Amino acid sequence: MTSFFSKYLRKVELMVTFALLLAACSNDDNGFVSVNPVGGESCAAIEESSSSDYALSSSVVASSSSADGLVSISTTVMEDTLEIFAFGGVKIDVVADSFLTKFDYGDVVTVMIAGYDTVDVPVVAGYGYVFPGEFFLYVSEGLNYIKLEARYGQMAEVVGLGRDLKFPIDVIVQMKEKGGYVDHLENLKSLSIANYPGAYPDLSIEEFANFRMVRTTGMGEGVLYRSSSPIDPAIYRNAIADSLAEVAGVKTFVNLADELQYAEEYKGFAESYYATQNVVYLNVEPAFANTPFKEGLVKGLRYMVEHEGPYLVHCTYGMDRTGFTIAVLEALMGATADEIKADYATTHKNFYNVVDGKHVDLTTKQVELLQAIIVRLMQNSFKTAGVDISDFENADLASATEKYLLALGMEKSEIEVLKSRLK
């Protein structure tokens, strides 16, 4: 009974603190930060072109239309091993301006690398036009190449280009869906967030901190939580998230964003509830299809196996790295595709959209476009582990996720313990 009342009083204190913070910031323009979530400028206008000519770079580029009318080109991977091995990009030997006479920004294309892998990606003008972890075909006017990339990731590893590669490597780029990514580009242009509570008068303190219990099918009550960072003050939500974690009795934190030495330098860290609990520091980028993230994921899940809950998973916003990790755990425990997509989008609802300094609800279409992101991210990462969830809505996601974790190096016994801890 004493524990119940102490938690209740702590919750009241949090609400008072939030109200004071709201009042203090409501007239402070310095607290507002309009953020394009993908870090890009306004998307380039999509231009129609009737030209059918291709400029040639160092190799012959053939353009054609397939039997079903799909536009395609045949060329090779450029012999830029520095780009491939140091940065992970895959340059394709086509002049960008010529490519744009057949394809437009917002098209979805299939890139087929002979002897390696095939991926479907949007055509965009830079990494700022996709969400973290997503694949894309970078096409920038004036360049003598186009490039297959992953935001924050190593695309060369994804498609299987290793140190033993031998040139020439043939590539076919083929239209998959004309304008298939245009709605996503328009949606990304319109999204912004703020870093002070006055912009979110309609949200609770939990929603403002992006703090919530995971309640999908198979997950135990009060076992798993997710939030923005309880220690990083960058987005002004840390003190609230830390206090909410204390109220929830979180014992083990999975920190996807930081190294211990840097975490300890955050202002207020030593006095936080967080600093008194079990924490694994993973410091991984949101490169979900690459080895460093996969190794970090396994390390984090093993830490959960070895320590008692309740658990809280976080990164900085609790959006990308947290979103993927939580989706994996939800799928493992038996969540439906709709539950996974809905929980992923809830985070975006908690941040977006801020218009004229005030939070407004996302439209149904915006939510659907955001839900599609976690589907792509999981499909891409699972595929690199040899697990097919291309039919996401009808896949046995629990079984597929167990296969995925086994492929990443977890033992069957570890997975069983993890599941028992999350029930």
UniProtKB/TrEMBL annotation:
Keyword Signal: yes
A Pfam family annotated for this UniProt entry: Y_phosphatase3
Signal peptide (UniProt feature, chain positions): 1-23
Entry's Gene Ontology molecular function annotations: phosphoprotein phosphatase activity
Tyrosine specific protein phosphatases domain location: 295-328
Segments passing through the bilayer: none
Superkingdom classification of source: Bacteria
Keyword terms of this UniProt record: Lipoprotein, Signal
Protein name: Lipoprotein
Organism classification: Bacteria, Pseudomonadati, Fibrobacterota, Fibrobacteria, Fibrobacterales
